Amino acid sequence: MARKSKAADADGAAVEGEKKGKGNLVPALVIAAGLVGGGFLMGGRTAAPSAAAPAEGEAPRAAEEHEEEPVPGEVLTLDTMTLNLADGSFLKVGLALQLVEGVTPGGGGGHGGGGDADPKAYAAQALDEAIHVLGGHTFDDLLTPDGREKVKKELSERIGERYHGDVMAVYFTEFVMQ
Q1: Which candidate, 83, 97, 117, 115, places its Cα nearest to that of 166?
Q2: Helices 119-135 & 145-162, crossing angle to 10 degrees?
Q3: Residue 61 backbone dihedrals phi, psi, to 5 degrees
Q4: What angle (nearest 5°) sits at the alpha carbon of residue 115, between those of residues 109 and 120?
């Protein structure tokens, strides 16, 4: 009988050992699955663009550009103005604003329209920003094509912010320094 009880104990211990092993395995799998799932959810947002890399020969981010890219609309040409540069030189500059489709200068369409009936009143903020940005530069800053391109990019960004995204780009229609 002692043998049976030892065998039973041995079988019982073996059975308990298996249950303990399985009992620890299930919570470990649940925790591991939770960590993997949490990592996927937390890191999935940043990892998604790299996972969706375009195949060879495809245009990159075509879907994103289609959704986010504003459509060009009307081009509003502003009056030419002359202003002082930071070093005492003069700049005669003409500007044109590339508006987003559906935005009407002075017609109230879009954020920057404001209901003004006069396109010149609509353009006043852009001219003010141009004086502020361009007037802070010197003749030498604006002499090179790279210098003009940098200031045009800065001006486009600042005017775009001022018009709440209704202006896509700024073009120089005239640029004479003295």
Answers
A1: 97
A2: 130
A3: 50, 40
A4: 95
pTM over 0.70: no
Give me the amino acid identity at 77: T
pLDDT digits (tens, 9 = 90+) for 57-112: 555 554 444 567 889 999 999 999 999 999 999 999 999 999 999 998 876 555 54
- In 12-142, where do the E strands start and end? 72-77, 81-84, 90-100
**What 3-state DSSP class applies to 77?**
strand
Three-class DSSP category at 175: strand
Tokens encoding 117? 């009936």
Q: How many CB atoms lie within 10 A of CB 49?
A: 10
The answer to whether 80 and 92 have CB atoms below 8 angstroms apart is yes
| CB 77, CB 96: distance < 8 Å | yes
Q: Report the distance separating Cα 81 and Cα 99, nearest Å.
A: 20
